[in-house]
Amino acid sequence: MAPNPLVRLQGISKVFPGGIVGLDAVDLDIASGEFLTLLGPSGCGKTTSLRVIAGFESPSSGTVLLDGRDITALWPFDRPVNTVFQDYALFPHMNVAENVGFGLSLRKLAGAEQTKRVRAALDMVGLADKLGARVSELSGGQRQRVALARAIVCEPRVLLLDEPLSALDAHLREQMQVELKRLQARLGTTFVMVTHDQTEALSISDRIVVMNKGRIEQIAPPATLYDRPATRFVASFIGTMNLLQSRFVGRDGERLRFAAGELPLEASSDSGETPTAGDTRTIGVRPEDFLAANEAAEGTAPARVSGVVFHGRTLRLHAELGQGTPIVIDAPRQAEGFQFSVGDVAHISLRRGANCPMLPG
Ligand SMILES: Nc1ncnc2c1ncn2[C@@H]1O[C@H](COP(=O)(O)OP(=O)(O)O)[C@@H](O)[C@H]1O
Ligand SMILES: [Mg+2]
Question: Which of 35, 119, 127, 165 has the smallest count of CB within 10 Å of its CB?
Answer without folding.
Answer: 119
